[in-house]
Design a protein that fits this description.
Blueprint (H helix, E strand, L loop, with lengths): L5 E6 L7 H14 L4 E6 L1 H4 L6 H18 L7 E4 L5 H10 L4 H4 L3 H7 L8 H16 L4 E3 L5 H17 L10 E3 L34 H10 L18 H14 L3 H8 L4 H27 L2 H30 L3
Parallel strand pairs: 1-2, 2-3, 4-5
The structure holds adenosine monophosphate and tryptophan.
Length: 334
């Protein structure tokens, strides 16, 4: 059984990365580089489960790579590549389609959310997307997967698929069961307009999210306009129950200021939310605008971004091909 620690995660190239991606995933990607070998993938095959305009998809792949680099992922330490450039992902996904069960996929809440009321019209790709995600992870036999809380159910499915493969082909321990690494406070950054919805790229209003490329002005305006609460900031977390927008702002502030929720509430109780908002905007501007500037700078150097992807592709392919050889053997494919 492989005991090696290896991190794998993926981000869809579907447009503007935002504060949720940053706090829920990217920051964790960066710090994990110190402890483990890491593979970070731009998952374009996942993105096309909903229609993408081809030229926009291409731009978004570069933008996602630039965001990886701008937040601090080091291409000399970690493997950064685009999913479709390593064909093993699609091949293993097919094998896992035959291991995974329809009943398991029917339980996936993200499909239900994304397909909406007319499920008959959703693409087959959107339905079997969790099997492709399992293939991404198992192709490298990754042991740890940093993600936001919205991906927890997909990771549980990946573990079920790995376990069933190991049982079916009588090879206990062949696929390790990957551990999710989910941030504590900020596993789900919520929309600035509706605290019951997660911050998302696809939400119509740009005021619902802080994008990594937002300017100082945009960040200030969005935080000023963010929904909060008419009552002053309470003393304890109990006072934030049923106030999801206020709780979200306090959570983000606590994460960026590196102080506990209790400490933040202690310091701010009795004050209006405008006080918290001014300080929060300052922290966000300090942390996010340098990242945005770096993304824009990197996007002007496409040859460099292509070179990073190419190097990553070569390294990823070596691991993928070696593992696929063994997987094909286990299944009896010659
Ligand atoms: P996606 O943009 O859907 O490919 O997501 C990339 C990563 O960001 C995944 O690990 C997600 O779980 C994470 N993520 C996306 N939205 C949020 C959010 N609002 N809060 C926390 N994490 C998020
Ligand atoms: N499904 C993930 C998302 O939408 C992206 C993803 C694809 C992923 N493959 C992965 C995340 C493998 C972690 C590991 O955010």
């Amino acid at each position: 059984m492989s005991k090696k620690k290896l991190v794998f995660s993926g981000v869809q190239p579907t447009g503007n990365l935002h504060l949720g991606n940053y706090l829920g995933a990217l920051k964790n990607f960066v710090s994990l580089q110190k402890e483990m070998e890491c593979i970070y993938c731009v998952v374009d095959l996942h993105a096309i489960t909903s229609f993408q305009k081809p030229n926009e998809l291409e731009d978004n792949v570069f933008e996602t790579v630039a965001s990886f680099l701008a937040t601090g992922i080091d291409p000399n330490k970690s493997i950064i590549f685009n999913q479709s450039s390593v064909s093993g992902h699609a091949e293993l996904a097919w094998i896992l389609n035959c291991v995974s069960r329809i009943g398991w996929l029917n339980r996936m809440t993200q499909f239900k959310d994304k397909a909406g009321s007319d499920k008959e019209k959703a693409s087959v790709g959107l339905y079997i997307y969790p099997n492709l995600m399992a293939a991404d992870i198992l192709l490298y036999k990754a042991s740890h997967v940093p993600v936001g809380a919205d991906q927890k159910q997909h990771l549980e499915l990946c573990r079920d698929i790995a376990q069933k493969f190991n049982n079916d082909f009588n090879c206990e321990g062949f696929f390790p069961l990957p551990e999710p690494l989910i941030q504590k406070n900020v596993s789900r950054v919520m929309s600035l307009r509706d605290g019951n919805k997660k911050m998302s790229k696809s939400e119509e209003s740009d005021y619902s999210r802080i994008n990594l490329k937002d300017t100082t002005d945009e960040i200030s305006k969005k935080i000023k306009k963010a929904k909060s609460d008419s009552e002053p900031i309470p003393q304890s977390l109990k006072g934030l129950e049923k106030k999801p927008e206020a709780l979200n702002l306090v959570n983000i502030y606590s994460e960026l200021s590196k102080s506990s929720l209790d400490k933040v509430l202690n310091e701010m109780s009795g004050k209006e939310y405008s006080f918290l908002k001014t300080k929060l905007a300052e922290l966000l501007i300090n942390e996010i605008t340098p990242v945005g500037k770096e993304i824009k700078k990197l996007l002007n150097d496409k040859p460099y971004l292509k070179q990073v992807l190419k190097k990553g592709e070569e390294k990823a392919n070596i691991i993928a091909e070696e593992n696929l050889k063994n997987i094909r053997e286990k299944v009896g494919l010659i």
